[in-house]
Amino acid sequence: xxxxxxxxxxxxxxxxxxxxxxxxxxxxxxxxxxxxxxxxxxxxxxxxxxxxxxxxxxxxxxxxxxxxxxxxxxxxxxxxxxxxxxxxxxxxxxxxxxxxxxxxxxxxxxxxxxxxxxxxxxxxxxxxxxxxxxxxxxxxxxxxxxxxxxxxxxxxxxxxxxxxxxxxxxxxxxxxxxxxxxxxxxxxxxxxxxxxxxxxxxxxxxxxxxxxxxxxxxxxxxxxxxxxxxxxxxxxxxxxxxxxxxxxxxxxxxxxxxxxxxxxxxxxxxxxxxxxxxxxxxxxxxxxxxxxxxxxxxxxxxxxxxxxxxxxxxxxxxxxxxxxxxxxxxxxxxxxxxxxxxxxxxxxxxxxxxxxxxxxxxxxxxxxxxxxxxxxxxxxxxxxxxxxxxxxxxxxxxxxxxxxxxxxxxxxxxxxxxxxxxxxxxxxxxxxxxxxxxxxxxxxxxxxxxxxxxxxxxxxxxxxxxxxxxxxxxxxxxxxxxxxxxxxxxxxxxxxxxxxxxxxxxxxxxxxxxxxxxxxxxxxxxxxxxxxxxxxxxxxxxxxxxxxxxxxxxxxxxxxxxxxxxxxxxxxxxxxxxxxxxxxxxxxxxxxxxxxxxxxxxxxxxxxxxxxxxxxxxxxxxxxxxxxxxxxxxxxxxxxxxxxxxxxxxxxxxxxxxxxxxxxxxxxxxxxxxxxxxxxxxxxxxxxxxxxxxxxxxxxxxxxxxxxxxxxxxxxxxxxxxxxxxxx
Amino acid sequence: xxxxxxxxxxxxxxxxxxxxxxxxxxxxxxxxxxxxxxxxxxxxxxxxxxxxxxxxxxxxxxxxxxxxxxxxxxxxxxxxxxxxxxxxxxxxxxxxxxxxxxxxxxxxxxxxxxxxxxxxxxxxxxxxxxxxxxxxxxxxxxxxxxxxxxxxx
Lengths: 728, 153
What we know:
A: alpha+beta, Aldehyde Oxidoreductase, domain 4, Aldehyde Oxidoreductase, domain 3, 3 domains, seven-stranded mixed sheet, 30 strands, B: alpha+beta, Ubiquitin-like (UB roll), 2 domains, 33% helix
């Protein structure tokens, strides 16, 4: 019997557009899913990392003698034990595997211990004697460029200028502002961890939680001085990522200890170490000037933005480019002057976090739009709709937006939703909750709106592709498929999406997802909201080849059809270094929020009463997972609005724990009403538009706008703290 | 030291336990039960929630020696063979599981809630789960899961 592809597709359930259960769901609810911190190996030892207590210091001596005498210690390593290149980094190779003669941030790794028990390793670390000559840290991003150079090329990591239209045009109504964004943490729950297993031939296997297996492998191999094929990575269970696993943490360290001792080495950070062990969201200072005519039409936007990259570059160059190119938001503006700067300081290194660059700019430009509305006597929604970009609009880079950009529609959707009932009399629904701090007295309500824009996939000419392998064979008389990639499942549900695509493309219901590892080609990074787009595209392309070979057969006997292919999205261009012009991005995603808040003005406590959202996703391959991304992304935006900040003083982190770094709980997160638009992007597989990041961008400014509306306060900094509301 | 403890209805023994180890470490590293998770190890996140003599506790805050001759039930002990507990089933169905690192703790905590309050209101669910952090879901689908499980028990 032979069937056409369309007939096959209609014959199976669980294809695209439906919400089948995750293939790893049962294991996860049973507690049997193997996360990177759950791994165990016969005869394994534990690795630990000695870190710098100073944000900036010269290392004058390191004495390992006493540490090596601790019973149960197998190895104590320093930079001199790194056989290959001691520098790594995503874009600039500027970060030492282990510090040599200088430390540039508090928490920088200095030495490693391998021991028979975590406690033994801790005790040995206390016996390592490092003497430091403490230096004055550079901590102010606005003056860092002219301060003590922390790296050979100075402290400016990247400057992205954008010049478009007139640079000196004037406007009837002008609003200016200075805005600050605090340092947010990804706060994924699964700590940095993994297991390195040495092989007798000098090679190593690493089981690890990461966002990009191949770039990890390349950096590890370079540091170990090994050919890439002698470093094999397999993805373990990943307990969330959100950008914080794009950079290396314990990967090289565990491999070094394993190769040095000949024993399997497990490393698991605790929560405090995790705060030092990964990059954070760039704090930012942003100066904006918006000019408009009396109808509210924007005439110009001028901005200067500073993004604090901390001690090492990580993905700062891309963050700066996003902040610049998305710096006016989803609005049509003809005359634009943008200068975005990424700086080195001695603050904690900052890099990727959900929405990077766009989040910082989004808080500032949306705050400005509210200020403009107030100056014009217009409503916040009307001033946004008046300037809303549409398909065909031109970006600050000159790039024409060539698929749906339903900005006005998204705003109207959230505006038209019913408002929640008035302030509750149930204390559980008031600011402060069961702390019983108010029964309604001193509580005021406000409503705020915001909309945001995010680039999807990698930009600026990067060759962004993924590799997928699809194998089909007969099992128990039925066609069965297996799909294999190196694209990292970090919780978002890529494993489900890949199954759905194979079912739809091949009409085969039974689809196994093979472990993600480096035995197959690069899957690209699980970031920039790109995996459904790019790895989804690769799986779809591999299926097309397999489908041709199947030629409609439903019985292939002993034949095994096994095809691997690469798939890349359309090319992008570099930005002009002087004018910032260029078709730099692949796709744009949009989301809008309306927030309603109750504020206890006496105590400065905020309760977000509702947080409604509308987002265009092009095509919802898995509607349940799409909603999950919007809810989760909005929650992280809520966190940045009212609670989340790594607080530093003189470069030192003051709150490296979940006691002092607060993330939203189930009591903080309100119900959400969500509208999902499916306006297909003709350039993308199935018309999809990346989903993960856009909701994180507009959530924060909508909540702050609602607090402003409730209190009348200017509120130019996030997170908004109680003292900002009480003035105490 | 040696610790004797009943875990998921089985008598278990752990040897060479250092006195500073937590119940969480003993479960994960000595008894082969890594389902209870190590997200904060300081009692803030709830991901290591287990029953200790039928009361939910953070296993990271219980010293190993404190469980001598007591009864522990972990997330691995909730399903009946291949049959998931209704709470587990509802978490998968409702989309309450993304990365899943918070899931074991939330499943145990929700299981306890529904044992005590078969049909909880939303504010009751929120209060009961307030000590369990989740970073992926924004909690709405976790609420959906608890409501679904309540409707089935």
